[in-house]
Amino acid sequence: MTVESLHSAERRAQITADIVARTGIDTAMIQRLVTAFYARAREDALLGPVFGAHIIDWDAHLARMCSFWASVALMSGSYHGNPMSRHLGLPVDALHFDRWLALFEETATAVCPPAATDHFIERARRIAQSLELGIASVRGVRLGRGQRFRAEDLAPPPSGDQP
Hints:
The protein is an all-alpha fold. The chain has one domain: Globins (Globin-like). It is 67% helix and 0% strand. Helix 2 (27-43) crosses helix 4 (58-74). The longest helix is centred in the last third of the chain and has 25 residues, at 114-138. It is globular, with a radius of gyration of 18 Å. The mean pLDDT is 90.
């Protein structure tokens, strides 16, 4: 290990320790939150069909989401995926992100102490905003400040019958 990577690892460990001390978040709390949230999302009338159509192995998905949230919430560096690319093709818009956030916030409030809830929610809001912007962009919609992506606002693709 180089001196630079040692310092980086020490810095990451200190950041994680500070977050844990401030919020009480640990891997067991992350697992409880992820498990409870996805149980609710799978049953949700709006989100359930999206998840059901795209997730085959729920155990693997939950493990991946625990790793993701450990990286997001604790700066663990344990997640090595690309969330944006996994979401770009999904049939979702602002309504889905609003519902995802509402369920996530309700679940975090029920499962976590207040400091942890605030920490998770702040990050979830940034994630939802980033994913919504990315999805809109790949569908040819450039959102301005405060604008939201609504799938019904997309122009229909041109048909071959038009002059």
